[in-house]
Design a protein that fits this description.
The protein has helices at residues 23-30, 38-54, 93-96, 104-108, 137-147, 183-194, 206-213, 237-240, 245-253, 273-276; strands at 4-10, 15-21, 63-69, 76-82, 86-91, 113-120, 123-130, 152-160, 166-176, 218-224, 226-227, 257-261, 268-272. With 280 residues, it is of the alpha+beta class. It starts with a strand and ends with a helix.
Length: 280
């Protein structure tokens, strides 16, 4: 059940709990940046893993967009998901070009921030929080507690193969429902931290596994997650307008082409000089 979020209620419907094996999703996205070092893969992987789970909390046309800015403000991470489970994420160019393989904690630093936009159309909410834990996962939990006043626990476990490919990735989201005692969220956190290996559910029934760890497990649905980038050649025509008339005329005169690349998926779009003539 890779790339499928299992949505459950536990503890007599007092806690909403989602769990996902998103190994394929992360490898699909991280394969676009093959030269990225392990720390940057971990940074992007953690961010995408958590945001993919957030897609299951959305409805209709809602989407969630997360921007994480490190203490060095030129370093940024972006991730986005919609209610259909379409997920994308990327590191900005400055971070991709960073050569120092420092720890994630040092990369985030003491001034890291998380900015989240959630909603649809004109009905969107923006929240900004700091990153006191410097590990992404706990910092996003901190965001929900601070900005949305929701008692939340997010767990995530990523394991790398020797070639820095993601060997496996699992994530879990737990949220207290109204009236539930706060200690339940701490109980979920403790149980998950002690049983990550047990929760790897590739072959076994997830309800049976969860029932061995939590009380009153009820599966209420499933949601797919998948990598999706909505870029198109038409979207990049606007970038050509940023070139001066002289530059465009030079391309046409030399019968050259201009190639542009999507920062999210890496897809390249080529513009033949005949196409560029229409811009003048």
């Amino acid at each position: 059940m890779q790339n499928t979020i299992v949505k459950t209620l536990i503890y007599d419907k007092q806690v909403r709990l989602f769990i996902v094996d998103n190994t394929k999703l992360l490898n699909d996205i991280l394969s676009l940046n093959k030269e990225t070092n392990k720390i940057l893969k971990l940074t992007l992987g953690k961010t995408i893993s958590v945001v993919s789970l957030m897609s299951a909390t959305l409805k209709g046309d809602q989407r969630i967009s997360l921007q994480m800015t490190m203490s060095d403000p030129q370093y940024k991470v972006f991730a986005d998901a919609d209610a259909k489970g379409n997920v994308c994420g990327y590191l900005n160019e400055a971070l991709l070009e960073a050569t120092d393989e420092i720890s994630l904690e040092r990369l985030i630093g003491h001034k890291g921030t998380i900015r989240v936009i959630k909603g649809a159309g004109f009905n969107q909410f923006t929240g900004i929080t700091d990153m006191p834990y410097r590990n992404i996962v706990d910092d996003i939990s901190h965001y929900f507690i601070q900005s949305e006043q929701i008692q939340t626990y997010i767990g995530e476990n990523i394991e790398f193969a020797h070639d820095n490919r993601i060997l496996c990735s699992h994530a879990l989201y737990a949220e207290l429902l109204p009236g539930a005692p706060t200690e339940l969220i701490h109980q979920v956190e403790h149980t998950v931290n002690m049983n990550w290996d047990f929760l790897k559910y590739n072959k076994d029934n997830i309800k049976e596994k969860l029932s061995r760890l939590f009380k009153d497990v009820k599966v209420i649905g499933y949601s797919p997650v998948q990598f999706f980038c909505g870029c198109s050649k038409e979207m990049f025509y606007g970038m050509l307008h940023s070139l001066s008339a002289n530059e465009l005329e030079q391309v046409i005169h030399n019968k050259e082409s201009i190639d542009t690349a999507c920062q999210i998926c890496g897809r390249t779009y080529y513009f033949h000089y005949n196409e560029i003539q229409g811009l003048l």
